[in-house]
Structure formats: C-alpha cells, structure tokens
C-alpha cells in the first residue's frame, strides 16, 4: 500500500508534475500562443500598418504621381506659358522693333515736319516782317519812283520845322511841276510817261544834299525839302540847278524828250510857320511860275494867294454859269485862202458876265478841266453849236462846216460817242456839217480805243480836225492810220512866221497834209504877209483876225448873208 500510495502519490505527483508540466506547457503554450497571437496581432498590426503605410505610400505615390502629373502639367503649362511668354516676348520684341522702326520713321517724319514747320515758321515770320516792313515802306513811298510820298514828306517837314524853330534856322520848300507832261503822257503813252517821271526823280535826287528830301506828290508834281538854308538865295540857287539839270534831254524808249520845270518856293518862317501853309504857298508860287511862261521858279509872295482865291472863284463862277446858262458861243469864220469864201466857222465859248462883258476860254477852260466841269460845259457847247447850225441851215444859210473844240477829257469819256449821236439826233443836224477839233495830245492818248472812236465818228459822217498841230508829239504813223480830215497849223508858227524855221515848219505841215490827203487850215492869220506866204504854200484854208474875230451868232449870220446874197 505505501507503494501504492507512494505510487499513487508518485503517480499523483507525477500526474501533478505532469499536469503542472502540462499546465506549464499549456501555460507556456498559451503564453507562447498569446505571444504568438500578440506577435501575430502585432504582425497583423504591423502588416496592417505596413499595409496602411503601403496604402499611404501608394496613396502618397498616387498623390505624388498625381502631383507629379500635376507638376508635369504645371510644368507643361509653365512651359507653355513660357513658350507663350517667349512668343509674346518675341512678338513684343518684333512689335517693339516694328514700333521702334515705325517710331523712328514717325520721329524722322515728325522731325522733318518740325524742321519744315520751323523753317516755314521762320520764313513766315521773316515774310511777315518783310511784309510789315514793305507795307510800312509802301505806305511812305511812291511806287513808281521810290521817292518818299506825301505822307513821309509831311512827317519830315514837321520834324524839320520843329528843328528849325528850336535852332532859329530857315528851311525851304520847293513845289515842282513838269511842264506839259500831260502832252508827253498823252501822245507817247503812259509807259514813256512813267519812265520820264522816274528819270526826272533821279535827276532831282542827284541835285540835292543827302539831308534834303525829294518827294513825289502825285502825277508830275514833286516837292523838295531843303532842310537847311541860310538865306532865300540858297533856295534860288537850288531851283536854278534843278531847272538846268531837268532841261537836259531824257532818252526814253528811243525818244529824246525835253521837259522843263515850274518851281514854287516857300521859306520857313517867312512864308509859312507850319507844314500845311508851307506846302500850300509853295504850290501857289508854282502856279505863278506856270503863268509866267513855265521853265522858271517863283518865290511865294502874299499877293499870290489872291490869285489862288481868284482861281477858286472862277470855279464857282463856272458852276453858276452852267446852271444859269451864262455861256455863249462866238463863231470865227474859216476862209478858203484861194477864193476868200467862208467855208465854215469855229465855235468858241465865252462866259458872259452880268455886265455883259465876256471872259475868254483861256481864263476858264483849263480850270474847268481840272475840276471836271469840262464835261457838262463841253456838252452844252456841242449841243448849242449843233442847234445853231441846224437853225442857220433851216433859215437857208449855207454855213458850211462848224468846228467844235473837244477837250481830251471829253473825247476820252466813255459816253462821248453816245452824246454826239444824241445831240445830232435831237438837233436834227446833218453830221456832214459838224467837225470836231481835238488836240494832238488828246488824239494820241489811248491810241487803240481812239482808233475805234474815230472810225465810229467817221461812220456817223462827222469830221475830225487835229487842232494846234505841231505843238504836241504826234506819232506820224498814227496820223496816217487815223481817219482824220483836217490839220490845223498852230497859230504860234503863223505868228512867228518871220523866222525862217517857222516858215519851214509851215511848208512841211502843208506838204505832209497834202500827201496824207488832209485839209490844212492855218490858224491866227493876222497880217497880209502871213496870208501871202500861206498862199504861196498852197495852204487851202485859214482863220484869223485878218478875216474876222470870233463874233456872236447873229453877227456871223450877217457875215454869211453879206457874203452869200
Ligand atoms: P483854238 O481852238 O486854237 O482857237 C483859236 C483861238 O485863237 C481862239 O481863241 C481865237 O479867238 C484865237 N484867234 C483866232 N484868230 C486869231 C488871230 O488872228 N490872232 C490871235 N492872236 N488869236 C486868234 P479863244 O477863243 O480865246 O480860244 C482859245 C482856246 O480855248 C481855243 O484855242 C481852244 O483851245 C479853247 N476853246 C475855245 N472854245 C472852247 C470850247 O468850246 N471847248 C473847249 N474844250 N475848248 C475851247
Ligand atoms: Mg480850235
Ligand atoms: Mg487851235
């Protein structure tokens, strides 16, 4: 039994040992298992973590890939953008280049324009300055001669007077007028006239000192201001010098022209204390020089003013006489020198004053021409002569041909021809009984229109006489071309016939008239010697005191009736 118990015990123990071992082993196994489980768990966890990590990594990789893709995309985009930028830059560069080329071109063009504009502006400024200077010059100078004009003279005269007053000095003013300039202008034309004025201006300037002023007042009138004279005698010396210089022939357009001067002088302060009075008085003295026969000088004297006043009063008298019909016509017979028969008459105007005394035309015709009254006066004369002639013819008096003087101003008036027609029409006078006397200078003016007018008058049947022939500058070729009927030898040749030269002129005019188929009438025959000479030269007709003075209409009718019973 012990053994059994022991055995049992041993068995138990063994069993216990076994169980414990088993337990231990189980425990150990469990622990191991637990450890294993835990390890498995851990490993699973780890695997899970790894998986997660992997998943994360995959995600990351995926994200990275995405990012990479994105980055690549971005890169691409950036590249694209860069390309775009590069393109743009290129374009910009190109544009810039084009722009800069364009700009350069524009700049160049603008520059050029600027330069041109600047030059233009400069030129314009210069031109404007020049124009202003020129205008100022023109305003103060005469366009034809370049001399100071009336306005500049007036300035200088006033300054000179102020200076002379301050220093107690004298100065002289000379008013100059070319003698018979109108004749030259009318007969040789305005171009020759203009050149003569220029030539005269040069000579005047050459005669005076630098400090003196030569100015042109207009027409053929000049004024010379001698700014310093000691005595009146100095001005007289200067005037003599001017007369002498001017008298030398002027060679113009193939002509040798002789022209003289009439000079009036006024001295400051003796003859005027202000510029207006100085000029006016020198002008008055100049008229005096004209009346004294021209080609001389006259110093102003107070009594000359009376003449100027008289001139004005003549103008007033003419106006009144026209209104109140105070003019009368006298008739001077024209005579056939061979037979002594009256061939007609010249109508000569007179002004009949209240006391019935007559004023001759030399007193007023030139004044009437100056103030334009010659037009109405001439019209009256023509109408009255035609009326009277028609009346004589109607009364059975064979008056022949009545000559009427026509001044150049009337003849060249645009209404002249119409006026002649109307008067002939109104008075019923046959045009064959009318002859118009025009002076040489009147005829030679505006030769082309004159030609037309002469032909028109010729067509009307009116005759034309050249009055005072030999005193003007007739162009002989025009004499041949103009339809003219009569030459009237100026009475100055007949008057001075004793001198051989004048006889030669008369003979030449008569011969020329004949060869041109013109009637020749000698004027101013007073003496039997003159008549005899003219007869030997076969002058066809004559007029003069030897036959009759100009007489009133009724006396002329008596003359005619006496001659033609
Ligand atoms: P004219 O046409 O040459 O007239 C001749 C002038 O000589 C007239 O002077 C006449 O009276 C004058 N006369 C005639 N025979 C002699 C003579 O034998 N000896 C002298 N010494 N003289 C003589 P009048 O009437 O004084 O006329 C002078 C000038 O006035 C005229 O010269 C003419 O140019 C102009 N005239 C006269 N009447 C008119 C007119 O109605 N109209 C125009 N525009 N001028 C006229
Ligand atoms: Mg006459
Ligand atoms: Mg005459």
Give the topology:
Blueprint: H1 2-140, H2 150-167, E1 170-178, H3 181-188, H4 190-207, E2 213-218, E3 221-229, H5 232-247, E4 250-252, E5 255-257, E6 261-268, H6 275-291, E7 296-299, H7 303-324, E8 327-336, E9 342-352, E10 358-359, H8 361-370, H9 374-394, E11 401-405, H10 408-411, H11 416-427, E12 434-439, H12 440-444, H13 447-460, E13 463-469, H14 476-481, E14 486-489, H15 491-495, H16 500-515, E15 519-522, H17 528-536, E16 541-542, E17 551-552, H18 553-563
Parallel strand pairs: 6-7, 9-11, 11-12, 12-13, 13-14, 14-15, 15-16
Antiparallel strand pairs: 1-3, 1-6, 2-3, 4-5, 8-9, 8-16, 8-17, 9-10
Helix pairs in contact: 3-4, 4-5, 6-7, 7-8, 9-11
This protein binds ligand C2E and magnesium ion (MG) (2 copies).
Description:
It is built from 18 helices and 17 strands. The protein is about 60% helix and about 15% strand. The mean pLDDT is about 85. With about 575 residues, the chain is an alpha/beta fold. The strands form 3 sheets. Strands 8-9-11-12-13-14-15-16 form an 8-stranded mixed β-barrel, surrounded by 5 helices. The chain has a 5-stranded mixed β-sheet with strand order 2-3-1-6-7, with helices on both faces. The longest helix has about 140 residues, at about 1-140. β15 (about 520), α17 (about 530-535) and β16 (about 540) form a beta-alpha-beta unit. The protein has helices spanning about 1-140, 150-165, 180-190, 190-205, 230-245, 275-290, 305-325, 360-370, 375-395, 410, 415-425, 440-445, 445-460, 475-480, 490-495, 500-515, 530-535, 555-565; strands at about 170-180, 215-220, 220-230, 250, 255, 260-270, 295-300, 325-335, 340-350, 360, 400-405, 435-440, 465-470, 485-490, 520, 540, 550. It has 3 domains: about 1-140; about 150-300, Reverse transcriptase/Diguanylate cyclase domain (Alpha-Beta Plaits); about 325-560, TIM Barrel. α6 crosses α7, α7 crosses α8 (about 360-370) and α9 (about 375-395) runs parallel beside α11.
